[in-house]
Design goal:
Organism: Aphanothece sacrum FPU1
InterPro entries: Homeodomain-like_sf (IPR009057), WH-like_DNA-bd_sf (IPR036388)
CATH superfamily of the largest domain: Winged helix-like DNA-binding domain superfamily/Winged helix DNA-binding domain
Strand content: 5-15%
Number of domains: 2
Low-confidence stretches: none
Number of strands: 2
Mean pLDDT: 88
CATH class of the largest domain: Mainly Alpha
Distance between the termini: 56 Å
Protein name: DUF433 domain-containing protein
CATH topology of the largest domain: Arc Repressor Mutant, subunit A
Largest sheet: 2 strands, antiparallel
Structural class: mainly alpha
């Protein structure tokens, strides 16, 4: 393996060193671990080439969530707005500051990935009911 010199911004280096120490590893090992994890997630290629406006992003729990590319709008959010709140695609577009074509594309993605999205929505309902009781 060839050595590679990496110059981190001081604040990032301090934070990385702290996390490395907390994990009981060297800064080099933390950097290798982080790069390996990032490459692994990029290799997953969950994005559906039929829907270039939808991209999978990892949430704080580590789950891969489909979102509208370039936004933080989750597919499930717009599906709920249309199905549960009975909003039209135009109303959803206006509410979320996107265009109607994007909403229509998200709903087409939903139709193609219905089982996956419905499972996430059902899980959210269960969690919500637990916390509301």
């Amino acid at each position: 393996m060839l050595p590679y010199s990496l110059k981190l911004p001081p604040q990032l280096q301090q934070e990385a060193e702290k996390y490395a120490t907390d994990q009981g590893i060297t800064l080099d090992n933390l950097i290798i671990w982080a790069i390996a994890e990032k490459i692994g997630s990029l290799k997953q290629k969950l994005d559906d080439p039929n829907f270039p406006d939808i991209v999978y992003c990892r949430n704080i729990e580590g789950e891969m969530i489909p979102k509208l590319r370039g936004t933080n709008i989750q597919v499930k959010t717009l599906v709920i707005a249309i199905q549960n709140w009975r909003l039209t695609p135009k109303q959803v577009a206006d509410e979320y500051g996107i265009n109607e074509e994007q909403v229509i594309n998200i709903m087409a993605f939903y139709e193609s990935h219905r089982q996956e999205i419905d499972a996430v929505i059902a899980t959210d309902k269960i969690i919500e009911s637990i916390y509301n009781d």
